[in-house]
Amino acid sequence: KTHEHVQGCATELKRQPLYNMFGVKKGSRAQEIITQKINGIKRKGKLDYIYPEKKIIADIKTCANILRFEPELYAEQLAYYRELASEKYGIPESEWDCYIMAVDKNILYKRSEIFLLDKQLLNASKDRNAHNLKLYLERKKTGFFNPVTLNPDDNLSRRDKCMNCDHYPNCKFSLQKNTTLIS
Q: Which residues fall within 8 angstroms of residue 111, CB to CB, at 6 or more apart?
């Protein structure tokens, strides 16, 4: 049943008119892991889809309801991927187009959408990533991480809980506990 569900999600994405731009073609790569040293710091990311010749990066997301999907919540992630890809392929960050391919995972029917993230949003997200990296490295150097002050009973959105505080990746709200994107 799970395999059928995943196939249904994939089929729905392929129905999108823009999907042909992402189709598996010579030069495109699915799930590429990029490891680069940027400003002396080793970083890595697992990209769902990259097509360097067309300067395209895409990430696939599933959601409960496509009508309420917020692609901007993933801007920091795509800005990070864009920085890695730029370093690896020598293509300026400003030339990459970053997309979110979102599919509704409702069992009865499927809906999908492809979103192009705004480059100004990606630039601002890169700045936030740099700020958070600086804080993380300072904490790592001193061995001091402030205790998490968020209350798990608070009615916080996912945006408030994921990678936007000084405590990531040691935050109890982290979606990927004990995972490090930098070393």
A: 12, 66, 67, 103, 104
Residue 55 sits in a domain of what CATH number? 3.90.320.10
b/e 30-58 (16+ beta carbons within 10 angstroms → b)? eebebeeeeeeeebebebbbbbbeebbbb
Question: Does 181 reside within a domain?
Answer: no
Residue 86 is assigned to a structural domain of this protein: yes
In a domain, 153, yes or no: no
By C-alpha distance, which of 11, 111, 19, 125 is closest to 62?
A: 111
Tell me how far apart the terminal alpha carbons of the chain are, to the nearest angstrom. 39
Provide the residue range defining the domain that includes 91. Answer: 2-127
Instruction: Report whether 64 contacts 105 (CB < 8 A).
Output: yes
Residue 54 and residue 20 in contact, taking contact as beta carbons nearer than 8 Å: no
Question: Is residue 164 included in any domain, yes or no?
Answer: no
Per-residue pLDDT tens over the stretch 67-98: 888 999 999 999 999 999 999 999 999 999 99
